[in-house]
Amino acid sequence: MNMPTIKITYSDIRLQQDAETLAEKLNLPLIDFSQIKHTPVAEVDYFLEYASDGLCLKPAVRSNHGPVRCNFNSGANVHRRRHGGGNGQAIAKAVGVSGKFSPQVLDLTAGLGGDAFVLAGLGCQMQMLERNPIVHSLLSDGLQRASIEGQGDTELAEIMARMNLLEGDSATYLNALPVDKLSDIVYLDPMFPERKKSAKVKKEMQAFHGIVGADEDASALLDLALVRARYRVVVKRSASAGYLADRQPTYSLEGKSTRFDVFALQKLPI
């Protein structure tokens, strides 16, 4: 798969230092904001841009899709937080959240943190891992902004305090842990090749498929997860997908577009 060309930029001179720091970290070229409109589309697929409302990934061809940004304090996230926080949703049931049990969850494929935010809002302690440097940068920026916004929002601050992000490969992380170091729940939502009926896939997700690629090591990661979880491993899949590694789960919770395959290892402490 040909990886897209990405360049770092910024929309305001006050954000130049942040952009320079990120460009050095990711080893990507930096473009002055005044030069974006003069950059031939053939030379770049995406810009990773610092703007007043946070870091975003946006296509060089603006008609392709809007900017992709990690934002925990707007839109669906705010609505969910104010109306039950996801309690009763399939993900909460799959992980085993209850009034008596708020597990520690190791999220091996954090992405933009949407599922982790739901679980943290329900009281789970979230340890998140993300190995793709572009995705990690977007998620890290979203977490930082939400933490700042939480200074005036006690509920949001409590949720953010339960979310911790590490950058790195999940298999490497798991292999480096002490043998007796277990997480209550291990959560896995691997990226898979784009479906043939790509019109059903949001354009923003198509961008992520191009940048992240397929998690070819997902089957091996499941094997590792099963020996690192105390109570269960939860694998998120599309409703029409087969079982990961053709491994039959203990049971599944199915929705219209998503399925959670639950590998129960021992009874929850409730």
What is this entry, summarized?
By secondary structure, the chain is of the alpha/beta class.
The average pLDDT value, as a whole number, equals: 87
- Indicate the radius of gyration in whole angstroms: 19 Å
Major sheet size, sense and barrel closure: 7 strands, mixed
The CATH topology name of the largest domain reads Rossmann fold
Approximately how much beta-strand content do the residues carry?
15-25%
Shape: globular
Q: Helix count? A: 9
CATH top level label of the largest domain:
Alpha Beta
Domains, number: 2
How many DSSP E strands?
A: 10
At the fourth level of CATH, the homologous superfamily of the largest domain is Vaccinia Virus protein VP39
Strand order of the largest sheet: 6-5-4-7-8-10-9
Plain-language structure description:
The chain has 270 residues and is α/β, with parallel strands linked by helices. The protein has two domains: 6-59; 75-264, Vaccinia Virus protein VP39 (Rossmann fold). The protein has nine helices and ten strands. It has helices spanning 16-26, 75-82, 90-95, 114-121, 133-149, 154-161, 170-176, 203-212, 218-226; strands at residues 6-10, 46-51, 54-59, 104-107, 125-130, 163-167, 183-188, 229-238, 251-254, 258-264. The strands form two sheets. It has a seven-stranded mixed sheet, with helices on both faces. A three-stranded mixed sheet has the order 1-2-3, covered by helices on one side. A hairpin with a 3-residue loop joins strand 9 (251-254) and strand 10 (258-264). Helix 7 runs parallel beside helix 9 (218-226). The radius of gyration is 19 Å and the shape is globular. It starts with 5 loop residues before the first strand and ends in a 6-residue tail after the last strand. Residues 196-200 have low confidence and may be disordered.
